[in-house]
Design brief:
The protein has one domain (24-321): TIM Barrel, CATH 3.20.20.70. 39% of the residues lie in helices and 18% in strands. It is built from 11 helices and 12 strands. The strands form 2 sheets. Strands 1-4-5-8-9-10-11-12 form an 8-stranded parallel β-barrel, surrounded by 9 helices. Strand 8, helix 5 (170-180) and strand 9 (187-194) form a beta-alpha-beta unit. Bound molecules: ligand PBG. Ligand PBG is lined by residues 117, 119, 121, 129, 164-165, 200, 203-204, 209, 216, 272-273. Residues 117, 119, 121, 129, 164-165, 200, 203-204, 209, 216, 272-273 line the site of ligand PBG.
Length: 322
């Protein structure tokens, strides 16, 4: 009790605070999401996400080289197709932007971990994450297509595939397809508890994946639910997920904590586009301190229990931690 106990004694200097710090962020915690499209020499700024770009495979290799210099050695790739159609067929095209980029990255660096986002929404003309029949997103026919995309990514050399579609049963379908094609060592990072969130706003411009009708609430989770997140995670683990993700991160730290406590498996959290752009917009107006806000946000995600943080701040945060 006070005055014997004085918590402030351990806050008196930076060295002391470092010694008693419970959570340490490191560049090795980060996965850097990147957008790749066809072409050469492309480095187009993404309006809704200042500091982020659309790259072609060659400039992507340069960007990943620079990230590597900063200490970030894990990347997540999203693809922008040349053409969109009803089934999103470019998703499993071995000549697709993601597949070409994965091969280029693997040829350039032997110490970069490549994760690929597996989904159909960037590739479908309607912008939904599964196939449409009679105006509805159909679950089971989508599984086969997602599995094809995952196998195509694995064939290109991806280390981890990350399904983000939220169709039921897709982890199992992907695991079976990977194993059946000799890719039993390729891991699955499932977007297990992915919420129907307003914080994906800037991403939809970045990936050109806004649904042309309706919204994603018929497959992504209701922000009000956490027990359901645990059921989703349990199902994905039973189906063979190696890492489970909670997304978004900051508004769902309670979910990160519960998932970590309940399962004890590697948990990832996605610091999404809205979380990124919101912080940058406030910092640009001088309303918050950019660097401190970045590190505080990322620390909170790790503190909640995520050992893997997917963040557009990966490079900047890694430099700040140096
Ligand atoms: C596609 C996908 C989305 C994100 C990752 N994969 C968008 C969505 O589901 O609408 C969001 C990423 C971000 O906002 O940074 N299924």
């Amino acid at each position: 009790m006070f005055p014997t106990t004085r918590p402030r004694r351990l806050r008196r200097s930076g060295v002391l605070r470092d010694l008693v710090r419970e959570t340490r962020l490191a560049p090795a915690d980060f996965v850097y999401p990147l957008f790749v499209k066809h072409g050469k020499g492309v480095r187009d700024p993404i309006g809704s996400m200042p500091g982020q770009f659309h790259f072609s495979p060659d400039t992507l290799v340069e960007e990943v080289g620079a990230a590597r210099e900063d200490g970030v050695k894990a990347v997540l790739l999203f693809g922008l197709p040349e053409r969109k159609d009803a089934t999103g067929s470019e998703a499993w095209d071995d000549g697709g932007a993601v597949q070409v980029a994965v091969r280029a990255l693997k040829a350039a660096y032997d110490d970069v971990l490549v994760v690929t986002d597996v989904c159909l929404c960037e590739y479908t003309s309607h912008g939904h994450c599964g196939v449409i029949e009679a105006g509805a997103v159909k679950n089971d026919p989508s599984l086969e297509l997602l599995a094809r995309a995952a196998v195509s990514h694995a064939r290109a050399g991806a280390d981890i595939v990350a399904p983000s579609d939220m169709m039921d049963g897709r982890v199992g379908a992907i695991r079976e397809a990977l194993d059946g094609s000799g890719h039993e060592d390729i891991a699955i990072l499932s977007y297990a508890a992915k919420y129907a969130s307003a914080f994906y706003g800037p991403f939809r411009e970045a990936a050109g994946s806004a649904p042309q009708f309706g919204d994603r609430r018929g497959y992504q989770m209701d922000p009000a639910n956490t027990d359901e997140a645990l059921r989703e995670v349990a199902l994905d683990l039973e189906e063979g997920a190696d890492i489970v993700m909670v997304k978004p991160a900051l508004a769902y730290l309670d979910v990160v904590l519960r998932v970590k406590d309940a399962f004890g498996v590697p948990v990832a959290a996605y610091n999404v586009s809205g979380e990124y752009s919101m912080l940058l917009a406030a910092a640009e107006r001088g309303w918050i301190d950019r660097e401190r806000a970045i590190l505080e946000s990322l620390t909170s995600i790790k503190r909640a229990g995520a050992s893997i943080i997917l963040t557009y701040f990966a490079r900047e945060a890694a430099r700040l931690l140096r």
